[in-house]
Amino acid sequence: MKKQIVGFRSNAKLARATWGEPSKIALQNLRQLTSEHSLSVAAGELQFLSGKWYVTHSGLLGIARRNRCCGIKSALVERHSDPAAGRWVFKATVYKTPRSRGFVGYGDADPSNVSPLVRGAEMRVAETRAVNRALRKAYGIGLCSVEELGSFSGSAKSFVAPPRGNGSQASNGSANGQPRLRDQLCLLIRQHNLDPMLVKAYAADFCGTETLKEASRDLVQSFISQLAAAAKNDRDGLVCKLNSYAYPAEANP
Strand 46-49 vs strand 103-109: parallel, antiparallel, or unpaired? Predict the structure, then answer.
C-alpha cells in the first residue's frame, strides 16, 4: 500500500509539472491507474490529453510483463491492406497463459491517420495499434492508447497552457536569468547518453509541431521536465520510447 501511495504522489507531482493542475476526477483516475496497473508518468506510460488519460505502448507492454504474458502474435491482414496507398491492417493476439485461446485486436494505419513524424511507417503503426488493442482486451484496460489516436502530434497543443507575455515563441531564449532551453536539453542528452536526433523527434511530437524550433517556450519547457524525470527514473523505458521515433529514418524494404 505504501509503495502505491508513493507511486501516486510521484505521478501526480510530475503530472502537475508537465500538464498543469489536473481536475479532481483526473487525479482520482490517476490514483486508480497507479494502484491497479502501476503505470508511471515518468516512464512515459501515461499521457494526459484534453483532460483525459491515455496509456502508451510502453505502458501496455509493462503491464503485460508484470503479469507474465505468455506471448504476442501479430499478422498482416492482406485482404484489407493496400500497400500502394500506404494502408495496412494487422491482427494481433495476446496469450496470457500457455493454454490461453488468445485475445484478438485489430489495428489499421494509413497516411491520413498517423502523425507526420511517422509518415512512411504506417505498417509499423498499424501493428502497434493492433498489439495495443489486444493487450487492452487481455488485461482489461479501459483507456484508449495514445498510438490508437488518429494523430497524436496534433493533440499535444490542447493540454499545455499557451505561452504568456507578448506572444513570442522564442523557445531557445532565456528568461529570468535561467539557462537557455537548448542548453538544458543538450545537457540532458549528454548526461544520459541519449540520441539527439531521436530526442528532437520526440520533442516535436510532444509539442505538436513539425519541428522543435516552431514550438513555444512553455511547450519545450514542459518537454524538458518530462524528459529529465523519465531519464532519471527509468532510462531504459525512455530509450525504448525514443527508439520508436527511429522508424521514419529506416530504409524501406
Answer: unpaired
